[in-house]
Write a structure and sequence with these properties.
By secondary structure, the chain is of the alpha/beta class. The chain contains seven helices and eleven strands. The structure holds cytidine-5'-triphosphate and magnesium ion.
Length: 229
């Protein structure tokens, strides 16, 4: 089953503290964003990639794509100040799509069988996200005091890709724009629009490189994955 994917790379990577966009940091000598794009370049179900970048970095990405050609990236789309705005720009630049996936450029380790499971779920349920059970105990805290311990068995950590029928996610973004709602992921917009979102159990390897120590984990995960592939 075919899909188009929006890959987000227009952030600043502030928490990574690398002094530049974390997408350019290397894992085993290959830039993070290239690892991510190669996953979809290699997936026969993926028919096109919309790569969303900061307008100041368009040329850097163009040069990178000359060094590491990714055929499915046909053009670059300029992102916005918030992740949600970057996604919206990506959605607007998709010409024809039935099934659309939205993915963080900073998550290079998603596996093809997991992507396919997700796409099949979204085809039947209209909206589906990858998630893993939360390992830590989570408490609600206010001003340094525990208010509540949340029942862990119902808590899931949500990842990307997230997969939607195009109309469902586009309508949800338009609605959020009208209501000036800013969510931390795309599914939250879809939920607010009244659409049920299904979960597909993913993998703990599918980390989002966020803080400096994640680079060490990433090297280790890549070593493990290349050994078992
Ligand atoms: N992203 C984007 N446009 C934005 C903000 C984020 O395309 N305005 C992308 C990032 O490039 C990243 C993904 O969304 O691939 C997830 O965001 P996050 O991990 O928060 O990355 P950054 O925003 O770059 O990092 P930070 O929040 O630490 O600055
Ligand atoms: Mg961010």
């Amino acid at each position: 089953m075919k899909y188009e994917i929006i890959v987000l790379a227009a952030g600043q990577g502030k928490r990574m503290k690398a002094g530049r966009n974390k997408q350019f940091l290397t894992i085993q000598n290959v830039p993070l964003i290239i690892h991510t794009l190669q996953k979809f370049e290699q997936d026969p179900w993926c028919s096109g990639i919309v790569l969303v970048v900061n307008e100041k970095e368009v040329e850097i990405f163009e040069e990178l794509l000359i060094e590491y050609p990714i055929q499915k990236v046909q053009s670059l789309t300029v992102g916005g100040d918030e992740r949600q705005h970057s996604v919206y720009n990506g959605l607007k630049s998709l010409k024809q799509a039935q099934m659309v996936l939205i993915h963080d450029g900073a998550r290079p380790f998603v596996q093809q069988n997991t992507i396919h499971e997700l796409v099949e779920k979204a085809a039947s349920d209209k909206a589906a996200v990858l998630a893993v059970p939360v390992k830590d105990t989570i408490k609600r805290v206010e001003q340094g005091t525990v208010i509540e311990t949340v029942e862990r068995s119902s808590l899931w950590a949500i990842q990307t890709p997230q997969a939607f029928l195009f109309d469902v996610v586009m309508n949800a973004h338009e609605k959020a724009k009208t209501n000036e709602y800013l969510g931390t992921d795309d599914a939250s917009l879809v939920e607010r629009a009244g659409q049920k979102v299904s979960i597909v159990e993913g993998n703990y390897d599918n980390i989002k490189l966020t803080t400096p120590e994640d680079l060490l984990y990433a090297e280790a995960i890549l070593t493990k994955l290349t050994r078992t592939e």
